[in-house]
Amino acid sequence: MMRWICGVLILVLSAGWVILLLKCGSRYAGLRRIPMDGLRLRRLGEPILLLIERMGLGSRFPSLFFKIQRSLQRNYGMRYSAERTLLFMGEMLCYSWLLLLGGSLITLINEERTGILLGSVLAIALPIALASDLHKKVRLREQHIMMELPELLNSIVLLVGAGETVQRAILRCVESRKGDISHPLYKELMTMTGEWESGYSFQQAFENFSKRCAVQEVSLFTTTVLLNYRRGGGDFVLSLRDLSRMLWEKRKALSRTRGEQASSKLVFPMVVIFLIVIVLVGTPAIMMLNM
After folding, report:
1. Residue 77: φ, ψ to 5°
2. Cβ-based neighbours of 148, under 8 Å, separated by 6 or more
3. What is the model's pLDDT at position 20?
4. What angle do CA 193, 199, 200 make, to 5 degrees?
């Protein structure tokens, strides 16, 4: 009975994928050129994208799509956010499809229920893990920006206090970190300086920078700069120093939190090591008593 069910499931999954592949044709060819890290099944998942659109999963599960789209916007920006959301959902469901297909094949060959059961469990757990990993990357990005922002602000305060303009001070900070474009804060700053060169005003480029970072502390930094940079002089430097002190306090709190999280993660390995030591020390003593 189980082999018959698995055979039907394999037939449905395979035939459905082929039919969807023929229907979508080159409809999603443009999505292949959108840059996005971590997508390994982009070509294989194109029929799944058609299935998502035909079933209207975006309207059926709006909160799920909104959370994923929001996380992708923070990682990659506003451009192509809807397309990236569709690609990410297609990747998740494509993994589920492959796991169900693989589990059914294992059960069909070995006549054991373990394959289909394990495939079904992984087909549910893996998409959840992918979404959780995406949200974790967003949190890490925000923490990296938060940890680096006080350093940037200190450099700007020193340069402005020495007579530089705000724009020139930011340009100097970006030029000093040109070799480290992987850091999210300086990556967004480089985009902002590129907007200046393209003709954007200082205020517009700074507001776009704040939206791309999507971090509360960056919004506070942007608001402080835009409110005070026209005045210049001692008032502007004083406001930046006050903001710098507040951001350093937040950085210390974040460092303490990360330290506590790291120590809590070590509890389980330490318990395991303790139990192993007890077994290693206690086993010879028990054997000697039995003798």
Report:
1. 100, 175
2. 183, 185, 186
3. 86
4. 65
3-state secondary structure the chain: CHHHHHHHHHHHHHHHHHHHHHHHCCCCHHHHHCCCCCCCCCCCCHHHHHHHHHHCHHHHCHHHHHHHHHHHHHHHCCCCHHHHHHHHHHHHHHHHHHHHHHHHHHHHHHCCCHHHHHHHHHHHHHHHHHHHHHHHHHHHHHHHHHHHHHHHHHHHHHHHHCCCCHHHHHHHHHHHCCCCCCCHHHHHHHHHHHHHHHCCCHHHHHHHHHHHHCCHHHHHHHHHHHHHCCCCHHHHHHHHHHHHHHHHHHHHHHHHHHHHHHHHHCHHHHHHHHHHHHHHHHHHHHHHHHC
Per domain, the residue ranges of the chain are 1-23+40-111, 144-253
* Residue range 145-180, pLDDT digits in tens: 888 888 888 888 888 878 777 888 888 888 887 766
d(CA 255, CA 145): 13
Residue pLDDT, tens place only, 225-273: 887 766 655 677 788 888 888 888 888 887 787 776 666 667 667 777 8
- In a 10 Å sphere around its CB, with 0-12 CB exposed, 13-18 middle and 19+ buried, how is residue 290 labelled? exposed
Q: pTM for the whole thing?
A: 0.76
User: To the nearest whole percent, how much of the chain has pLDDT over 90?
Assistant: 1
